[in-house]
Amino acid sequence: MDNSNSVQNSSYQALAEFTAFTDLALLNTGFPLVLGESLAADLRFYAAATDGEDYALLGRSAPQWIAQTPSGISQTAVQLGSDRSLLNKLGRSDFCTTAGASGVHSMFLQSISERHKVFLVVDAALQREQVDFVRASLKIYVNQAALLKRTTRDSLTNLLNRDALETRMLSLSAKNGSHRRRSVEPRCSGCFAIADLDNFKHVNDTYGHVCGDKVLIKFAQIMRDSFRDDDVLCRFGGEEFVIVLANTDVAVAMKALQRFKQTVADTEFPEAVSVTVSIGCTQLNLERPLDVLTARADKALYYAKSHGRNKLCCYEDLLDSKKLEQDAELFA
Fold first, then answer.
1. Which of the listed residues 152, 180, 208 is the one where a domain comes to its end?
2. Are residues 26 and 132 in the same domain?
3. Which of the following is catalytic: 17, 53, 166, 239?
4. Integer Cα distance of 156 and 4 in angstroms
5. I need a surface site. Which of 42, 119, 182, 255 has the fewest CB within 10 A?
6. Co-location of 97 and 125 in the same domain
């Protein structure tokens, strides 16, 4: 087979792989891996932060990038560092190549919206066909990311929506099942928690729904700031949110939830609204169905709500202290 045809077929296959990602976080890490393999070059993939100025590292072509995170998902805010000088050399252009002491670099800039862009650094000189391929790939990335954001993210808070939570839990369960085939002990432990804003109806009734939306947006931002990049954060519905802290000790997960609860209570929300949150959680066992985990955490949440609010309650602790009775269907 002609070598140019082989390269072209490889490029077409890579373009098809970009559209196969069904999760935005997986797209962000998988895109540079697939692109780097197709180009046979190292690369780094950044996205502009909300202010349109600072860039955060979404992914790299190096396979160890995935290995560094337990779930294979990362949104780590690694800033540009030495690549900032390369970004500056782009100026108003969307592509340029530069050579220096650090080697040859090809840089691409692709707009997502008026204030949001992605920045790609390839540590190689590229032929014209490869440049065209990268540009096409970036356009596909932007379209796919927009599609996934609409279908997997809550439009108000930008957290995962309920359907995406189910997909992510299935993914975690599959990874855990693969580990169990190689080990006696389950790899994944931690907490499955449901957090519910206390007296949120009063906020809407007193200050209006616009203020209520601002409170939810601020609450979601506190969630993102309080937990790890690979923890699962979801708006479950209304003022109810799900937090999945996987691959961590249960005691550590409980401390993280307690800190989060206190941070919410200490934060001044829009219109100087005072907000607290009640949290119910259960030990994370990925061999249990999502509806069982949800029901357990919901029982703990109900106990927290009915015993003063602004509390963190664990389902297993409530059982051990005889504050809850065992429910047969929750022991699946």
1. 152
2. yes
3. 239
4. 46
5. 182
6. yes
List, edge to edge, every strand of the sheet that includes 277-283.
232-237, 240-246, 190-197, 277-283, 312-314
Q: Do 213 and 156 meet the contact criterion of CB atoms below 8 Å apart?
A: yes
308: CB partners within 8 A, 6+ apart: none
Q: Which long-range contacts (CB under 8 A, 24 or more apart) does 222-228 make?
A: 222/260, 222/263, 222/264, 222/267, 223/159, 223/260, 224/159, 226/256, 226/259, 226/260, 226/263, 227/256, 227/260
Task: Give residue 108's domain range.
Answer: 3-152
Question: In terms of pTM, does the model score above 0.70?
Answer: no
Q: Say if residue 130 is in the same domain as residue 12.
A: yes
287 catalytic? Reply is no
| Cβ atoms of residues 32 and 43 within 8 Å | yes
| Tens-digit pLDDT profile for residues 55-109 | 778 888 865 444 333 333 334 444 567 788 888 888 788 999 998 777 899 999 9
Percent of the residues in the chain that have a pLDDT greater than 90, as a whole number: 50
